Sequence to fold (336 residues):
Amino acid sequence: MTIKLILAFALAFLFATAFGKYYIPWLQKQKAGQQIKEIGPNWHRNKSGTPTMGGVMFILAVTFVCLTVGFEGMLHGNYVHIFVLLFALVFGAIGFLDDWEKIKKKQNLGLTAKMKFLLQLAAALVFVMLMREIGYLKTQLYIPFWQTTVHIPDWLYFIFAAFVIVGTVNAVNLTDGLDGLASGTSLPVCLFFVAVTIAWGENYLQLGVFASGLAGGLLGFLVYNFHPAKVFMGDTGSLFLGGAIAALAFAYDMPLILITLGIVYIIETLSDIIQVGYFKLSHGKRVFRMAPFHHHLEMGGWTGKKWKEVEIFALFTGISLLFAFISFIGVVQRAL
Fold:
């Protein structure tokens, strides 16, 4: 089992890095450049024109792994990793439409917020109901660290699931604001699921193959996305990534682990919510120099120190790694 997980990681990494050598120049020729928001930090404007939709690199990498390393499991009738992949692909398609609108209009506005929300909500509900119908999902809540399970009505579980999925997808999307940030913070998240697969056993191998492939693909993408970024993942990549992480949490039947596992996403999202809410209530005052939180650090918020992108990358990735380890402690006993 461990050999397959290592193979999935290695193949995805090699696929993403090799594909990137040809894909990024192609994006440049297509003039598929990212438009930078004018309200952002001034020093980000020199990134304008950097190719976007780079998320295709790790999307194709994990798809390749699912169909090759995961093929033997499919022969035995286990397609759970394919359901997770298809679900993430739906969100990636929503992101692609958003990216395409931005490129076509040459601005940083794609689909309307309402349209994206409705599409994401519909995708979330269909996924949860389908997984429930097939038998890959139970309408119960496993509570990590306490090792207990709470049974709840189907309708309440579906509402909860839709909220968690849409929230996770948009939180990951919000984190994708600096070179390598979403990639770096998501790597420990994917490796957490790989570690859980090893701890829980063969029944979760197909999901482990997906998680390991996604980790390898992200690392391969990070070769080009690390500061200074040669390519951005775009909404195509960030929505796929958010959808994949949410789907994995539900497929492993532990969505509540996202509270600790996704701590960086939560911090980023809460900072944005607090900023907007306080701005409206106080008629123009701000809690942060700029939201989400990574921009606050960039602009010298609170301490006056203006954090560099590489420093923020290291800080957030380190926090994600620490909480991935804490999360693993909280669930490893479940299989014992």
